[in-house]
Design goal:
The complex is a heterodimer of chains A (113) and B (115). Chain A has 113 residues and is an all-beta fold. Chain A is 0% helix and 56% strand. In chain A, strands 2, 4, 5, 9, 10 and 11 form a six-stranded mixed beta sheet that branches. In chain A, strands 1-3-8-7-6 form a five-stranded antiparallel beta sheet, with no helix packed on it. The chains are: A mainly beta (113), B mainly beta (115).
Chain lengths: 113, 115
């Protein structure tokens, strides 16, 4: 069974603090992971990705960490800003697949001023 | 920049109607996808297409069909709309994974209500 799970439906943090969004996957056949951000009434936009050969990828305020032994990845946002308030989806490509993504359920982040 | 355009932002239809949702991308992408997004369920894949006239069922194809007559256009068809198909529908496109790990690019979605 190939699943990507986001077990926290929502997260609230104060502006300037760190936001940590978590994602678990069930199958070691996943070999590339992506995070998407979605505002209401807009489509998801690609945020950051990481290959299974790495354990960290950083892009400005956004860092993704991958723990393969735990089948867990996390997205860190530092410092959090009110404009980061959105739904965040993690997603993954199973190894060998031609482009079909498996998405998690999403986590709604609220950053309070 | 990749542009994926969905023909309608909001649509209201009646039960039993045949509904067409249109999606066009301007980046010559081989892959195109239709998802629906429902609260607590994330994005669920309905159908996808790897090339013109090719289609594959996703996770929830029942009650839907698709058409891809041209590379840039991918249509989702609700054969006989039902109230449980009220949802946000999202179209996406991407290059083939054989060209690297290509993220999917999404349109802004169609909020469909079936009355």
């Amino acid at each position: 069974d190939q699943q990507v799970k986001q077990n926290s439906p929502s997260l609230s943090v104060q502006e300037g603090r760190i936001s940590i969004l978590n994602c678990d996957y069930t199958n070691s056949m996943f070999d590339y992971f992506l995070w998407y951000k979605k505002y209401p009434a807009e489509g998801p936009t690609f945020l950051i990705s990481i290959s299974s050969i790495k354990d960290k990828n950083e892009d400005g305020r956004f860092t993704v960490f991958l723990n393969k032994s735990a089948k867990h990845l996390s997205l860190h946002i530092v410092p959090s800003q009110p404009g980061d308030s959105a739904v965040y989806f993690c997603a993954s490509f199973p190894r060998g697949n031609t482009g079909k993504l498996i998405f998690g359920q999403g986590t709604t982040l609220q950053v309070k001023p | 920049d990749v542009k994926v355009t969905q023909s309608s932002r909001y649509l209201v239809k009646r039960t039993g109607e045949k509904v067409f949702l249109e999606c066009v991308q301007d980046m010559d992408h081989e892959n195109m996808f239709w998802y629906r997004q429902d609260p607590g369920l994330g994005l669920r894949l309905i159908y996808f297409s790897y090339d013109v006239k090719m289609k594959e069922k996703g996770d929830i194809p029942e009650g839907y069909s698709v058409s891809r007559e041209k590379k840039e256009r991918f249509s989702l068809i609700l054969e006989s709309a039902s109230t449980n198909q009220t949802s946000m529908y999202l179209c996406a496109s991407s290059l083939p994974r054989g060209l690297g790990n290509q993220p999917q690019h999404f349109g802004d979605g169609t909020r469909l209500s079936i009355l």
